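Hmm, what's this shape?
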Amino acid sequence: MKNYSGKRITVIGAVRSGLGAAKLAKKIGAVPFVSDISERKNLKNMIAEFDKNNIEYETGKHSGKVFECDFMVTSPGVPSDADVLIKAKQKGIEVISEIEFASEVCKGKIIAITGTNGKTTTTSLCAHLINTAGLKCYSAGNIGTAFSEIALDVQQNEYVALEVSSFQLDFIKNFKPEFGILLNITPDHLNRYNNNFDNYISSKARLFENQNEEDYLIFNQDDAVVESIVKNSWANKLKFSTKTKVDYGSYSMDGNIYFANENNESELVCKVSDLNLKGEHNLSNALSVVSVAKLLKIENDVIKTALSSFKGVEHRLELVKTLNGIKFINDSKATNINSVWYALQSFDEPVLLILGGQDKGNDYNEIKDLVIKKVKKIYAIGSSAEKIYNFFEDLVPVEIIESLEKCVKTARDDAQRGDVVLLSPACASFDMFKNYEDRGRKFKNAVMSLS
């Protein structure tokens, strides 16, 4: 571990990752200073933690003090083109991401998981499977617990399943996971990448830029974009596929899950039906984790037990309640079009869809056919409501509604026994909510209040 004693570290952004980075800096003998442009009243919980840990901070601005540091740690919520980061670079100050900082002090092995969709489910399933096998695995990163919060806890013979977003990868330098999982890449967050898909792809590819022949890259052979970029990786490459046999990695065929070793010798691991989560996208996620398990020499019966006992994650196709034969599903984590496509594919029942929020450049043509086939009505909310209304009004009934709570009540009144009321917004939540978790919790509260 590097010697950080006395190092002055400026942390940009006070929420979650920033708080974790500041506390970690304090623990390793550095001198953190946290700066956030949000007003003090919006950061009460974080400020209480800073005061408790004797960490200096400022709110409502980025003063000149932020540049009085040895290096800067930025939170993923801070845009890469933020003035404070640009000025830091101009002054020759190194800027790194929170996951980079945490990885430098973590003794355990990192299993880094990225992709446009499925990261949280895959990260949770990976930790669940490894822990089921009697090993120790933490889950952290974009999943909710900042990596820096647990980095010092992870011991040399332990693992951390780390969900990493493109924003977190943007500012890595030496970040080098022993295992990398690349699930899929479809257009998302293009507002952060100058509406350039290639920029977003390049950001995802940073997952493996520091890996070498000692490391493993597990990637989705069914995704053409993914397959095109992994050619540049020096790591040992394992594939996974729900469509065809692979020469090294995991695949499904004829209702079974198989693993092919480095000699292209396949073995039966378990049945697809052993996986508790349904849908081809979840099968794909599970296959990536099976490859990790086999590399860790985990027995097939343990893999089967873990896959069958995993219950999924909150805010991802989460059944909240069945009322009078109507299912209410919380898929608040669906913040892009591709996620909604997967969600709609998961249901044979008629769907009443709650759609909208802060648009990130969505092209609704991608779900047009599925909406026509499966959706009875759309309830449009948030700042993108008018865009959604204009696109879908001639295809299915659409109603603009001012609040999520009213959406739930209106959908309940419109729904019939056997229908599904689905919150799968395809948009970010920040126009109306703190984050997608806040949106999901408010949806669940509204559903639970129904009589």
Observations:
- The first strand starts at residue 8 and ends at 12.
